[in-house]
Each structure stands twice: as C-alpha cells, then as structure tokens.
Amino acid sequence: MSFFKTFINSPVGPKTTHFWGPVANWGFVAAAMADIDKPPEMLSGNMTGVMCVYSALCMRFAWMVRPRNYLLLACHASNETVQLYQLSRWAKGQGYLQMKEDKTPST
Amino acid sequence: MATSKLQALWNHPAGPKTIHFWAPTFKWGISIANIADFAKPPEKLSYPQQFAVTATGIIWSRYSMVITPKNWNLFSVNVAMAGTGLYQLSRKIRHDYFNEEEAAALKE
C-alpha cells in the first residue's frame, strides 16, 4: 500500500507531466502494434524511418533529462524495437532487402 | 559581441553539444515526414499513428516546459506535431465519413 502511495506522490508520478508525457509516447508503440499486420504497401517508410532514429535519440534524452525518466526510456526502447520491425517489413515490401537467392535468410 | 552570443548558445545547457538539443531537433523529422505524407491518399493514412502523433504533440508541449532545462525547441516541435497530426486526422476523417455521404447521395 505504501509503495503505491510513494508512486502516486513521486516527482515522476501520475500527478505530474513527467508521467503523462511518456504515457502519450506509448501511443506510438500502441499505434505500431495496431498496425503490425498491415500490408507493407500501407506503411509509411518516411514515418517509420524517422521513428527509428527518433526513438534512439529519445532513449538518450530520457537518461540525461532531470528528473531521469525510466518510463520514457522503456517507452522508446519498445518503440525502437517495433519501429525497426515495421521498417524491415516496409523495406522487404519495397524490394530493398532482396539478396542473392542462395543466401540463407536471417529469420 | 556576436561571438560571445554565439558562444553562449553553443555552451547552453540545452545547446547543440547536448542530447537536449538533438532529440527535439530530430523530432522535427516526424512533422516533416507527416508533411511529406500530406500527399498520400487518405486511405493509406493510419488512424492509430496520426492519433498518437497528435496526442503526443499536445501532451509534450506541456512537458517541455516543466523539465530541466526548459526546452523551447521541444515545445515548438511538439506544437508542429500536434498541428500536422490534426491535419492528417481531418483529411482521413473527411475522406472516410463525408465522402461516403456524397458517394451515397450520388448513387441515389
């Protein structure tokens, strides 16, 4: 019970914007998960590529900002993962990842 | 005179030597990607993605004013994100809900 109270009253807790900013960024992860089975032609290479670089930078930002924000770090680590996956799907759909026929696929 | 002002900017706690500069600067890429996608037909836009972009932009405009150091670059980029997200959402909603009425009217 007291752990819960500590969380509620923490300087990065749900009474503060330091909590809700990162919660909003989980929206990117949720959106990517919702679009996980979308046909690759419908994915935006622009947006997905930008997200990959962006989440990498934001992981560093979350670490360096004061107060340090682990929720934001976790969010962008997740987003990086799912956006890289979507980027690979998009790239394959565009024909960028086609190698020689005899090469063993990595997945 | 100009040198010292530039130096002040260069050495600023949210300046170009720090992640506090580059993360928000790169965030402009999201709005630029979205603007590039203005040309995309509305059927290809993603509701979840545009909603996430808009909501993020709005909440982060507030967040950027309460972190240390205060970050005007982050503030402006999130305002832009919310703007492009709202525009894309309006395009898709208009296409999905208002064109249908027109198409139905035409059929009759």
TrEMBL record, chain A:
What InterPro entries does this protein map onto? Answer: MPC (IPR005336)
| One Pfam family cited in the UniProt record for this chain | MPC
Cellular component, GO, one term: mitochondrial inner membrane
Q: Does the keyword Mitochondrion apply?
A: yes
How this chain sits in the membrane, per its record, is: Multi-pass membrane protein
Question: Keyword Transport on this protein?
Answer: yes
| Keywords annotated in UniProt | Membrane, Mitochondrion, Mitochondrion inner membrane, Transmembrane, Transmembrane helix, Transport
Q: Give the UniProt family note.
A: Belongs to the mitochondrial pyruvate carrier (MPC) (TC 2.A.105) family.
Query: PANTHER family from the entry?
Result: UPF0041 BRAIN PROTEIN 44-RELATED
Question: What does the record give as the function of this protein?
Answer: Mediates the uptake of pyruvate into mitochondria.
Q: What is this protein called?
A: Mitochondrial pyruvate carrier
From the broadest rank down, the organism's phylogenetic lineage runs: Eukaryota, Viridiplantae, Streptophyta, Embryophyta, Tracheophyta
Automatic annotation (TrEMBL), chain B:
Membrane topology qualifier? Multi-pass membrane protein
Q: Which GO terms describe its biological process?
A: pyruvate import into mitochondria
**Record-level GO cellular component terms:** mitochondrial inner membrane
Query: Which family does the record claim for this protein?
Result: Belongs to the mitochondrial pyruvate carrier (MPC) (TC 2.A.105) family.
Against InterPro entries, the record matches this protein to: MPC (IPR005336)
- UniProt superkingdom: Eukaryota
**What protein name does the entry list?**
Mitochondrial pyruvate carrier
Instruction: Tell me which PANTHER family the record gives.
Output: UPF0041 BRAIN PROTEIN 44-RELATED
Instruction: Indicate where this protein resides in the cell.
Output: Mitochondrion inner membrane
Q: What does this protein do?
A: Mediates the uptake of pyruvate into mitochondria.
The UniProt keywords, alphabetically, are: Membrane, Mitochondrion, Mitochondrion inner membrane, Transmembrane, Transmembrane helix, Transport
